[in-house]
Amino acid sequence: MKPYVLGIDIGGTNTVFGLVDARGAVIASGSIKTRKHSDFNAYIEELHAAAMQLIEANDAVDKVHGIGIGAPNANYFTGTIEEGVNLPWPTPLPLAKIVSEKFGIPVAVTNDANAAAIGEMTYGAARGMKDFIMITLGTGVGSGIVINGQVVYGHDGFAGELGHMIVKRNNGRLCGCGRTGCLEAYCSATGVARSAREFLEVSPLEPSLLRNIPINEITSKDVYDAAMQGDKIAKDIFEYTGTILGEAMADMMVFSSPSAFVLFGGLAKSGELLLKPLRNAMEKNMLGCFKGKAKVLLSELKEADAAVLGASALGWEAKAPDVPAGASTPVLP
Asked: What is the pTM of this model?
């Protein structure tokens, strides 16, 4: 088998790509600006030129087994980006077909959270696990569900949007998806910033370091920094956030009984500020037969390499262009 795969992560701002070997070592990586070209063909031309330069510089021409791509709203079954709300091109977009034809290499695509789950299963904290749930805590809340060593895609490729479970049925916050009360509206980095604004407004007399920042400019990092300095409101925000996430994870246990939840993303780095209330709420709300059975782990993928590794893991499963996308799903070795 050819010794390398190319991993590509298409983000709203940057597209990161890297040459990866079978052990999960990123041999070399690069990036281009995603939104530089309003024309998708021009974007592909630049991506191809930059990636081929990387491949040639590392003596990997004709040594790349496949290409794996993680992208927002990318569908593993169809190989398309169905609705790229943060991307500058019209959708649906036949991503796998276009990239495969341009590079002459088999391509597989999936959404970014599923790519993270595949990467964790192949190279990270979930290696050797067959049942786990990956939760990405970034600008939004993403998730990838693995059952019996296989990523769950559902009948249409969209299964696993746990960030859009409703956690507040009454008077919930408006979510970017258009619904109200979604987990993402509370437990993402942007959700933490929203909580900060609410907590400050309902307790106008309580002192807080966060009051030194214009209220609409507060970020989750600001809340973390204040909490680490002992700020009560900031600590209460993490208690609130962790409790909601823990309650949601207790509900997630019921349908797939994972052996672990793996947390990834900037918010996961908050450590015990988030994890302590999360674990307490999860166990408190757990159905009796599941109590004490699920670990809560932090991702072991290096942040700088995580996006590329997650996408590249899918590259080993890429099929030749004449094999329909979705003919198989990634299976734990």
From this structure: 0.86
